[in-house]
Amino acid sequence: MKTDLKRAAKLLLESDNIVILTHQNPDGDTLGSAFALYYTLTARGKKVRVENEKAIPKKYAFLHEGYRHIDFEPKCVVAVDIASTSLLGKGMESYSDKIDLCIDHHKSNTDYAKQTLLSCSVAAACEIVYDVIIEMDNAISDEALLCIYTGISTDCGCFKYSNTTAKAHDIAALAIERHIDIYRVNQAMFECKSRAQLAIEKTALQNLEFYHGGKCAVIVITHELLEATGAEESDLDALPAMTRQIQGVEVGVVIKEREKGEFKVSMRTGKHPDASVICSQFGGGGHAGAAGCTLYGEVKEVEDKVIKTIGRYI
Fold first, then answer.
1. Contact at 8 Å (CB) between 76 and 51?
2. What global pTM score does this model have?
């Protein structure tokens, strides 16, 4: 059921023992949303914890420096930046029918929560979380604002992507006025790469293939390749955008093997075609310019399916 800002804020204000869920392969937006809410709600004396499928990538460690994990029986479950319960990941299925509030910005949202606060016109879910926090407290702490800035900046490519809003710039301006260390964020997110990340990107680009007259660029990353380079899954974050930066490419794709027979597809497009429409053919979704899905099978079989489907849209 769709809800509005006031009712979402009211639910959080009246709740305790709150679990906040992030999506699998957590990025800056889902983590920024989660920890911004964590700092805001714990400052009110509430018991809150953040849960996700796997360990949080090291580059986001600064977001949870003040986090303290505590055990309790959940009375309120909140999902942030999660369009579908399938994105919760393995081991998190028990929450699928227990989510009280979803805060999201994906047009592919499946309306799985009891209440859904959804806006598809914002740069990131963190924009909505910012509004929820202001609605609750009429202010935002420095800790929470750092998290919000991280989510917005990462989801709009440091304010370069077409989803960037005027409000995104306003929140960034507020962070600068408050002397939030956005340089630390920008350095960690956009200007620093580990040697493992460089190794995986070098190998990936060497394996890149073009299809459909050069309009589609595809990179396949196997589990063995990840292990050989010592890279983490988060070290692949920049690859989808890199495929779209090639002149003449309309659809850039990274197919990553998560486990044997399971592949995560990350897709990036320009103004045309709509990446979320293509990914929806495989039960996925996202945004017009950035979307994803999960496929199962042998690597060649998965690659062929994706390439064939893209061909119907370009």
1. no
2. 0.92
